[in-house]
Amino acid sequence: MRSVALLIATTLVGCGAPAVSLGGGAREYVATDYQSVLDRWTRTESVLLFDELTRALTVTATFESWDFRWAYVIRYGQDFRLTIPERQDMLRKRLEKTRERHEFFLALYGATDKQNDLSRPDSAWIVRLIDSTGNEIAPEEIEPLHKPGALESRFYPYSTVWRKAFRVRFPMQTSDGHPTIAPTADWFGLRFAGPLGNTDLTWQLADAR
């Protein structure tokens, strides 16, 4: 059986990426702030196959936190010229979702489309929500976006025709009632693992919650 040498490209926690906060509260964003907020909540990693000099997987993911959703609504409201009541209603509904699930928008590419379809039972990859305390949680829902449109291209510019896009949602609590991102966690992230290798995308937490 052919031996595959793997480089496991794992984010070094706290190295090169800004720390983030999962706290709530009001924000004072304008539409032009959206790109910097998107960058703060987005991570990219790859799994490389040394002997084939190719990428088995490259994945970019945005965590749709309270902070991110606030900036999203401000940008969306300007793009679509929403009225103030429409913006307020959209903001309320978006922020409520942060209390229901942990949600990520992600786009990936790799060896073959079939292997990289996270929603298929025969996918080459599984995805898990992890944190520094040892939590590792399977998603409640993986929603494939078969035809990402103008909205995705505008708000998630890494989502291109060359990548498969998904919304991945995780429960807020474990089966025994504990938070899936522990209050004492130093970081949380997404783990992608399979027969071709594994990699973690991590978000360093700036403060205790």
Structure description:
The protein is 20% helix and 33% strand. By secondary structure, the chain is an alpha+beta fold. The strands form 2 sheets. The chain has a 6-stranded antiparallel beta sheet with strand order 1-2-3-4-8-7. α2 runs antiparallel to α3. The longest helix has 14 residues. The protein is globular and about 55 Å long. The N terminus is likely disordered.
Gist?
The protein has 209 residues and is of the alpha+beta class. It is built from 4 helices and 10 strands, in the order βαββααββββαβββ.
Descriptive key words:
209 residues
Major pleated sheet: 6 strands, antiparallel
Counting helices, strands and paired strands, the structural category is alpha+beta
What do the pLDDT scores average to?
Answer: 89
Shape: globular
Number of DSSP helical runs: 4
- Strand order, sheet with most strands: 1-2-3-4-8-7
Task: For the record, give the distance between the C-alpha atoms at the N and C termini, rounded to a whole number.
Answer: 49 Å
Percent of residues in β-strands: 25-35%
Uncertain segments of ≥5 residues (pLDDT<50)? Answer: 1-15
- Which value, in Å, is the CA radius of gyration? 18 Å
Helix proportion range: 10-25%
Total strands: 10
How many separate domains make up the residues?
1
Element pattern in H and E: EHEEHHEEEEHEEE
